[in-house]
Design a protein that fits this description.
3-stranded antiparallel β-sheet; Protein_kinase_ATP_BS; host cytoplasm; alpha+beta; 6-stranded antiparallel β-sheet; Kinase-like_dom_sf; about 25% helix; about 400 residues; 10 helices; globular; ATP-binding; nucleotide-binding
Length: about 400
């Protein structure tokens, strides 16, 4: 154990004492939690918090496909009937153009743990979903000039914010997703080419990276913003993968978790380099392309720009809240990202038993991790989840941890 700590300290020079401060999960606890998970395959749903409040819900339809609904508590109910759009062309659009970075397997991250020969094991995850027809207003928009280049498909997501439609770009048969967002729900804007656009679209575009879902175009109508985004043909979010693997009694191996973790780490490094903080890192916001086994960060709806001053409002999911915000009601965005990456890693390796049973447990006890994990990953978890934010490594320093150099 001392040899591991010595290797870590020499390589990154950032880990202090008690780096192996973890709370092992006993086998009896794993079994009891396992039984609970089998009876309730989706335990406690996680809340997404902002000033006005978000709640993410999952519900199952007859085909067992998880659907998401995000409800903003603003005193109004989501609209059920949508008026037809005016029979005029859309106000305007911004074409971002294609990314000059490859989003295929040819991209090689700088992580020491990246293995280009690693083959995915999720090929059998082919969604069997009865997608519903898009709402009436989307069908009306299909005849407008800015949407003429897209063949509209089925509805793949919905909420009070709007809808997400599967579509195909006619010129090259490229699968895309069209995310329609109500203009009245957008509160933050950024300037691009002399126009004010939603901060979500701007920040996601700034963070362009092979492990971030790309945005190709922004279309503005009378009532909606439409984000034209990358859509892997066969994909599944990491939360569903973890749940399915747990139900099959074969959770992710360290090698599998390392691959996805390294890719999301690279994505967040890119975000910070471009002055962007995602602020809601969790398995639900990670999409896995099941054909290439690549993980992609999605949903920049709560993202912000990096700032020198501490944040005084928490955006994100309560279970990922950094402990310093609980005590001081403020936190550094970059240090909070490291904390969220630590919680994410535990979720990937221990999907039934969380790092902390209650949020405030982080202030008084070490994270809980399964006993069978390697000493290296236990060391990394305790380092990421250091209750003192100034003692956490930077995202780039995390890449130097010996766990990424392990071949098993």
């Amino acid at each position: 154990m001392s040899e591991i700590n010595e290797r870590v300290s020499k390589k990154a020079n950032l880990f202090g004492e008690n780096t192996m401060n973890i709370n092992p999960i006993l086998k009896s606890e794993q079994n009891s939690k396992k039984r609970k998970a089998e009876s309730d395959p989706l335990p406690r749903k996680r809340q997404r918090t902002m000033k006005k409040g978000f709640l993410s819900e999952r519900r199952y339809n007859s085909s067992s496909k998880v659907l998401r609904t995000k409800i903003r508590y603003t005193g109004r109910k989501p609209r059920k009937n949508y008026p037809a759009q005016k029979n005029s062309s859309c106000d305007t659009s911004l074409d971002y153009g294609e990314s000059n970075q490859s989003c295929s397997g040819s991209y090689e991250p700088t992580s020491p743990g990246y293995d280009p020969t690693f083959s995915g094991c999720f090929d059998h995850y082919v969604p069997d979903v009865r997608n519903t027809e898009p709402p009436y207003y989307v069908k009306q928009l299909a005849s407008h000039a800015d949407f003429a280049n897209y063949d509209m498909g089925k509805l793949i997501g919905a909420g009070s914010f709007g809808e997400v439609i599967a579509a195909t770009r006619k010129e090259d048969n490229k699968p895309v997703a069209l995310k329609f967002v109500l203009k009245q729900s957008v509160k933050e804007f950024k300037e691009l080419r002399g126009r004010n656009i939603p901060a979500e679209a701007y920040l996601q575009r700034q963070a362009r990276h092979p492990n971030v879902i790309d945005t190709y175009q922004l279309i503005m109508t009378d009532e909606y913003y439409c984000y034209v985004m990358e859509r892997p043909e066969v994909c599944k979010d990491l939360f569903d993968i973890l749940q399915d693997r747990n139900n099959e009694h074969r959770p992710l191996t360290e090698k599998e978790a390392k691959r996805y973790f390294a890719q999301i780490l690279e994505a967040n490094i890119r975000c910070e380099e471009k002055g962007v903080l995602h602020r809601d890192i969790k398995p639900e916001n990670i999409l896995v392309d099941l054909r290439t086994d690549e993980a992609k960060l999605i949903d920049f709806g709560l993202a912000s720009e990096v700032q020198k001053e501490p944040f005084t409002d928490f955006r994100g999911t309560n279970q990922y809240m950094p402990p310093e915000f609980m005590t001081s009601k403020q936190y550094d965005g970059c240090q909070a990202t490291v904390w969220q990456m630590g919680i994410l890693l535990v979720d990937m390796l221990s999907p039934v038993v969380p790092a902390f049973e209650h949020q405030r447990d982080a202030l008084k006890m070490a994270p809980r991790v399964p006993q069978h994990l390697s000493p290296e990953v236990k060391n990394l978890i305790s380092t990421l989840l250091n209750v003192e934010p100034e003692n956490r490594p930077t995202l780039k320093q995390v890449l130097q941890h010996p766990w990424f150099a392990m071949t098993v």
